[in-house]
Each structure stands twice: as C-alpha cells, then as structure tokens.
From TrEMBL:
One Gene Ontology MF term: phosphoric diester hydrolase activity
UniProt keyword Hydrolase present: yes
InterPro entries: ASMase/PPN1_MPP (IPR041805), Metallo-depent_PP-like (IPR029052)
Keywords (A to Z) from UniProt: Glycoprotein, Hydrolase
Name of the protein: Sphingomyelin phosphodiesterase
Length: 580
C-alpha cells in the first residue's frame, strides 16, 4: 500500500511539479504532528527535492521499499540486504599487527556538533512548543507569560548561543594548549530545518570557521563554499581546494608525516537523506567505498597510518548494506593501517568496538578497531527533548606521535542547566571541568596496561565485558554518555535497556544493532506492538492557538518572525507570494 501511494505521488509530481509544495503544506495542516509552521516550512523546502527524487526512483522495486521502510516506520521491515563480496586490491598481510609504541606523545583536539544559533535570544522562552527554543518567534510564540527565561549561556532545549560557543572556544586552549591539530566532525547550523536556506547555511559556515580560526589560532582543522573557507584560512592550498569542490564524497589530507586523514561524506548513506533512496540496488552508487579502499591500500603499501573521520558513524540510521561494507573494509585494513575512527552527530560521548565480520563469535581476537563518537557542543538533544543533555563537552586525545594510536581520551564539560543561572546572576563565565580520562575509568585493575600502550580494540572489548558484571562501571558509562546530565534515563539492572546498551557497544553495523534490540526484548520476554498512528487533532491552528495566515509564511525563512529578530542584511530573504 505504501509503495502504491508513493507511485501515485510520483505520477502527480511529474505531471504538476509546481503544485507539490502546496499539496505537502496542505497535508501538514491535516495530518502533521508537528507545529504547522515547522511542517509547512520543511515541506516547502523538500517539495522540489522530492519531486526530483520521485522522478528517478524505482518505486515498484528496492527504492520504493526502502523509502517506505524509513519514511513510514512499521509499513515495511527494513531490508537487510548483504553487499556483494569486496575484491580488495591485495589480500590482508598474514602478520598484520598494530605497530609497537614509540614512547612519544602528542595531543589532538576533537569537538563536534557546534550548532550555533545566531537567533538565540536570552530571556526568551526556553520551554516552548517548537523544535528548538530560546528564540523570539514573533506571532508564533507560545501564548501567555514566559515560563522559563533563556539564560545567556544556553539551555537543554536550545542550540548554542554565541556567548557559550565563544566560551567553548576559549576553554579549548586552556585544556589542550599544545594540540598538534584538531578534528571537527561536523554540524555547524542550528536545528531549525523548516526555516534554513542555502544563504543561511553559507553565513553560518563562514561565521563559524572564522571563529574557529580566530580562537584556535594556528590549530589546523581538517564542496564549494566550505572549500573556499578552508583555502581562505590557509588550511588547504588552491589545488586541494579545487579537489574538495569537485569530490564531494571523500577528502584526504596528511596533517602530519606518517598519518593520512580521510574524511567521508557520511550523508551519502544516512537514511534521512532522501537521495539515498535512489539506486538502492547498488552497493556503492557514489563510489565512495571504492575510493576509500584505494586510499587505504595506498597507505598499506606506504606503511602509513590512517585516521577515518566523518559526521556520523555508519552504525545506526544508515543503509544496512553501506554499514556492512564499511565494517568489511575496516576489518581488512585493521589494526595495522587504520589507527582510529572519529565521528559525532548523536550528541553523545560513546564508543563502538568494530569486530571482524568473518569471525565465528565476538571475542578479544575478533576486535579490530574502535569508533570514537565525540560529544556535542550544543546542549540540545534531538533524540529525546524531554531528557536533554544539559552539558556542552569537548574532548582531546593523547596520541602516539609515531604510530598515531590513541593512548587516552579526555572529556571536558560545562554544566549549562545546573549552573547557567548562577553564572549569569554573578556575572561569571562558564566553568569548564575535566570529567574523566578513559584510561583511568576503563582500565582493568587486574590486567593493567603499560603507560605507552594504546587503548586498543582489545582494551575496549574487555571494558564492555567488565560492564556486564560491574554495575558501577556501567552506570559511569551511562553518565559519561549523556555528558553527566542529571536527567539521564534510568537503565535498571537486568532491563532491556541494559542488555541492549551493552550489546550495542560492540555492534558496528545496523544489522547487529537491530539484533541487539531483538535479542534483548526476547530475553526479557517483553511484548512489542506496532505503533499506532498519531491520533492528535489535525492542525487548523498552531499549538499556540494562532490561526494560519498567508502573510505569516515566507519561502526563505519559513515564517515571518519579525524584522527585529532577523538581520535582513545578513539573511536577505526573497519575497514571493506563495499559494496555499
């Protein structure tokens, strides 16, 4: 039924593409569970894109099935297609081992999910009905007096105010004064997806990278607009900038002799990117994994170490086939070539052990690598806004200067919700604190490792195994995962939550993650039911009780939120009458 419905939508969009945005807005008004302004704005932006995607999709085949499985959860099970066997240029060396420690150490910064909100307004509503709060939405504000005024320094239901963003940048040199270079694993813009435009994103990128350059001085942070910014700031030369403009799947650089840094465009297999629903019969439609293999083989031949970084780990919310491909590639070139994998996106301080997919069972010998998922700068948690991660966090690593293996990981936080009001009342700056060192917390006292020995995949595998018996250690992990939020969701001993979490720490593919959930539910005997459709009343008005008016809607920014809020010289919205 879902595929047939999409077929009708495709036929309509091909015959009358100019009507698609209006139809989508009308569907928002009738069926959406979101605020009308948010849904209508999002549909206005997605309309032309969806029209183009529909025209290319094979809706009766794999494309349509994937689109239904991810766009309408419960309509179809997610297809767990296995990729074809990879023909690597050369077989894996029989004695592939991680190189011996050098005894020399450097520091490397890692921060992620900046999400700067230039429209953040202290004193505005921090407990609103919008997706993100701490803004003046004009006539779309919630009715009545402000329930929770937004602090100057941020809030758990809001993106990063400029004051707190600058505080984070100022804190970095205090904790990592001698960093050799830094990793920024993405997400610059605010979460108002129903309002953003290409101009808005470009301005956010320019402003943010200029701040990084200004506050981090000479710390090197490794598409058309972004490539130009990198070149302007002398992070890459003109030849590299041109390569970045024309190769939007992967970028490679060498930040230090002996280390190759490969950045993957992980949007290419993210399930919320509708373009991934095209050519789903192919394992590697963009050719990114093919190029990754060539780069890794080149490094193996050179006896060179590699770091892989990307915005999101290809572990959850990723096409299953892409996830399995990535695991196979990592297993082939680990542990002798790939020294580390670094990601962000989920706003959580986590790690995942990558195991060899050809191993009969998960064990110390099958553990081949580790994904380090960096915590976020923004305190906003999009996965569960009722349980926000209040703290902002940054991380740095102690790294072997020759082998580039991770020797230790350190996390620093600022308690936004707990302390922001006090800081503001006393005219104080946020207090950033070192929370933990991974080596100190997760080392096994019965199996100590030498100071120059890295935090190997075996180290992390043992840590997970210990958590299964050591409840205190597991609870510490949960606290660090949520950046020490006091509202961390309870995860009782013996619960589905505990079993699922422990399993997923060693699940490096979408398929394995789903298996973890199924096994935990089955073991606990919990019955699951298909989610019922949303029964809320259709939106004829907004949650604030405001009637929909044509002049409230603006193509470039979604809704008219007042001349005093948006700088017209910065955002420059185009004016065009829209039909409903």
């Amino acid at each position: 039924m879902c595929q047939q419905g999409m077929g009708i939508a495709k036929a309509f969009s091909l015959q009358a593409p100019e009507l698609v945005p209006g139809v989508l807005r009308a569907l928002c008004a009738k069926y959406s569970y979101r605020r009308l302004d948010a849904c209508a704005g999002l549909m206005e932006r997605l309309g032309p894109q969806l029209t183009g995607i529909f025209s290319e999709m094979n809706l009766e085949g794999s494309d349509g099935y994937y689109a239904c499985a991810y766009s309408f959860p419960g309509s179809c099970p997610v297809p767990l297609h296995q990729p074809k066997p990879i023909e690597f240029p050369k077989p894996k060396p029989a004695n592939a081992q991680q190189p011996a420690p050098s005894g020399e150490t450097i520091q490397v910064l890692h921060f992620s999910d900046w999400h700067l909100d230039p429209l953040y307004r202290p004193g505005s509503e921090a407990a609103c009905s919008h997706n993100i709060c701490c803004r003046d939405y004009g006539r779309w504000n919630d009715p009545g007096p402000i329930k929770k005024p937004a602090s100057k320094w941020g809030d758990g239901r809001c993106d990063t105010p400029i004051a707190l963003g600058l505080s984070a940048l100022e804190a970095i040199p205090k904790f990592v004064p001698n960093a050799s270079f830094g990793l920024f694993t993405g997400d610059i813009a605010s979460h108002d997806s129903w309002m953003i435009t290409e101009k808005y994103i470009a301005d956010e990128e320019t402003r943010s990278y200029e701040l990084f350059k200004q506050y981090l001085q000479d710390l090197r942070l490794l598409y058309d607009h972004v490539a130009g910014i990198w070149e302007k700031n002398n992070w890459i030369n003109s030849v590299e900038a041109e390569y970045a403009r024309s190769h939007n799947a992967m970028f490679m650089t060498r930040p230090m002799p002996g280390l190759k840094l490969i950045t993957l465009n992980t949007d290419l297999y993210y399930v919320r990117n509708f373009f991934t629903m095209l050519d789903t019969e192919q394992d590697d439609p963009s050719g990114m994994f093919h190029d990754l293999v060539l780069e890794l083989q080149d490094s193996e031949d050179r006896n060179e170490r590699v770091w892989i970084m990307g915005h999101m780990a290809p572990i959850t919310r990723t096409l299953p086939r892409s996830s399995l491909l990535f695991q196979k590639i990592v297993a082939r070139y680990s542990p002798h070539v790939i020294a580390g994998i670094f990601t962000g996106h989920y706003h959580q301080d986590k790690f995942f052990v990558v195991h060899d997919p050809d191993a009969s069972e998960q064990s110390e010998t099958s553990a081949v690598n580790v994904v380090y998922q960096g915590p976020s700068i923004t305190p906003l948690d999009r996965s569960n806004p009722n349980l926000p991660f209040h703290d902002k966090a940054i991380r740095w690593y102690d790294i072997d200067a020759k082998t580039f293996s991770v020797l230790n990981s350190h996390t620093v936080i600022a308690d936004i919700v707990g302390e922001a009001a006090y800081w503001e009342a006393n005219d104080m700056e946020p207090e950033w604190k070192l929370v933990y060192s991974a080596r100190e917390i997760y080392s096994d006292p019965e199996l100590p490792i030498a100071l120059d020995e890295p935090l190997s995949p075996i180290f992390w595998h043992r840590a997970v195994e210990r958590m299964k018996e050591d409840r205190d250690l597991f609870e510490k992990y949960l606290q660090y995962e949520s950046k020490m939020s006091g509202d961390t969701k309870p995860c009782q001993k013996g619960s589905v939550c505990e079993m699922e979490s422990l399993c997923q720490m060693q699940a490096s593919t979408v398929v394995k993650h789903q298996t973890c959930t199924a096994e935990a539910v089955e073991t606990r005997g919990v019955k699951t039911a298909r989610k019922k459709p949303n029964k809320k009343e259709p939106f004829g008005v907004t949650r604030a009780g405001k009637e929909i008016r044509l002049e409230d809607y603006n193509e470039q920014r979604g809704v008219n939120i007042g001349e005093g809020v948006i700088r017209r010289d910065l955002w420059m919205p185009r004016k065009r009458r829209l039909g409903w």
